[in-house]
Amino acid sequence: MTDDSLIDRVGRLPFVAPAADPTGVPAAVLLALSPVDGADDLGLVLVQRPDHMRTHAGQVALPGGGVEPGDRDGIAAALREAEEEVGLDRRAVRVLGSLGRSYLSVSNFDVLPVVGLWDGRAELRPNPAEVAAILRPTLRQLADPANHELVPLTRLLPPSAIRARRVPAAATSPVFNVDGTVVWGFTAGLLSGFLGLLGLAAPPLPPEWGIQPAP
């Protein structure tokens, strides 16, 4: 690999020590990266939630969830959730570090993004209680301008949700198209910031979101 390969850029990310006192309910997600044979690229694991879920039904997310009493910290929570949701063996993941927390006022979750490397070879299996499908895009696929844009939330939410959330008419969200599946909302915002840190193209983060995936 060259000195400026994606894996080198990931190693130079501004990892931080997780804040000891999160703003809201502590949660974590895992950016599980794996090498792509014959290319300067990295694969990523995304999950699509089942339609029957009470919240975020059908939406695409990173593996993750709330920090539970048995978790040592947010990093342990992210690894546990990935193992529970898609069968990614936590022992196979080399954690590089974590990025700055993102507080989500709509859910009161304070999300810690954890970055880890694995070889990408083991079969992943969706837990049907939490995952309807597993998506495996690469970072360069996400960064392709043909696969991302900034769109009005009115195109993504039904009118009833727009009214209930009092969404401003001009509100927007980054959107990624992963083989015909739309990724939007917090996950798309986090991915936009992550790609930007790596010097890859991404839709901008709407300033009104107040989401800062990294310092």
Task: Please write out the topology.
Layout: H1 6-11, E1 25-35, E2 42-44, E3 46-48, E4 60-61, E5 64-66, H2 74-86, E6 94-98, E7 102-104, E8 109-117, E9 133-135, H3 139-143, E10 148-152, H4 159-165, E11 172-178, E12 181-183, H5 185-197
Parallel strand pairs: 1-8
Antiparallel strand pairs: 1-2, 1-5, 3-4, 3-9, 6-8, 7-8, 10-11, 11-12
CATH class: Alpha Beta
Largest sheet: 6 strands, mixed
Distance between the termini: 28 Å
Q: How many helices?
A: 5
CATH architecture: Alpha-Beta Complex
Poorly predicted runs of 5 or more residues: 210-215
Beta-strand percentage range: 25-35%
What general form does the structure show? globular
Question: How many strand elements?
Answer: 12
Order of helices and strands: HEEEEEHEEEEHEHEEH
Radius of gyration: 16 Å
| CATH homolog superfamily | Nucleoside Triphosphate Pyrophosphohydrolase
- Give the proportion of residues in helices: 10-25%
Mean pLDDT: 89
Predict the CATH topology. Answer: Nucleoside Triphosphate Pyrophosphohydrolase
- Our count of domains comes out at 1
